[in-house]
Design goal:
Length: about 230
């Protein structure tokens, strides 16, 4: 969160392999930023590619503009980019720009979209499978996430789920299976541990049954459903 709060690091890049929990972690960061009132506005886009495997700039611009309440006319990319850039550079409001699934290493990508690179009023939060995105920007910092080995996964889960899972043999057995279903994904382990903290074994068993049907990266949503 310190990287998101300060002006020294921009962009902040959460990187790791597919399914590791980058988007979920980014969502948690954004939620915390909103709770702490770090930004006046938030805008986001999921980066999708065209048939020639390059980012669909128009689609990205449309998404960003929609969250900003900014009308865009026509399909002339440069004119649209200038309008977005002026909006983000105005300085009246501090904006968090969120780009999910960036893969391009094109140094002109941000300029083409309309995102200013040198404005303190605009912070950029990115997820990517690639460590080399925005490598030409000196103030960029990567925050890599990876799956945890079994002992570290269990240690993290105990911290978030509480000590009762060690003292209750029945709960301990279910908890071990729950951690296994998290597949070493830190964000899944933390989210599930917090959600099941203090719950009875019936909820734990129900959660485990649902988790066994889901992909690991979808586990947090499964837990939310179980607890409703």
């Amino acid at each position: 969160m310190e990287a998101v709060k300060g002006n020294e690091i921009n962009p902040v890049v959460i990187c790791g392999m597919g399914g590791i929990g980058k988007t979920t972690l980014m969502g948690e960061v954004v939620n915390r930023a909103k709770k702490e009132g770090l930004f006046d506005e938030y805008t986001k886009a999921t980066v999708k590619e065209t048939l020639d495997k390059t980012p669909d700039i128009c689609l990205i611009q449309d998404e960003l503009a929609r969250y900003l309440g900014l009308p865009l006319e026509g399909k002339e990319i440069d004119a649209r980019a200038n309008k977005i850039r002026q909006r983000l550079s105005a300085g009246a409001k501090k904006v968090l720009v969120i780009l999910d699934n960036v893969s391009t290493t094109n140094p002109d990508f941000l300029w083409e979209v309309g995102i200013p690179r040198d404005q303190n009023s605009c912070k950029l939060l990115v997820t990517s499978r690639e460590r080399d995105v925005f490598k030409d920007i000196d103030t960029k910092k990567n925050f890599p996430i990876s799956d945890l080995p079994e002992n570290e996964a269990w240690s993290l889960f105990k911290k978030t789920a509480g000590g009762l899972i060690e003292s209750d043999p029945d709960l301990h057995l279910v908890a071990k299976q729950v951690v296994k279903e998290c597949a070493g994904l830190p964000i899944a382990i933390s989210t599930v541990g917090r959600a099941l903290h203090g719950e009875g074994i019936a909820i734990w068993k129900n959660a485990l049954r649902e988790m066994e049907k889901a992909c690991p990266e979808n586990v947090p949503g499964v837990i939310d459903h179980v607890k409703r």
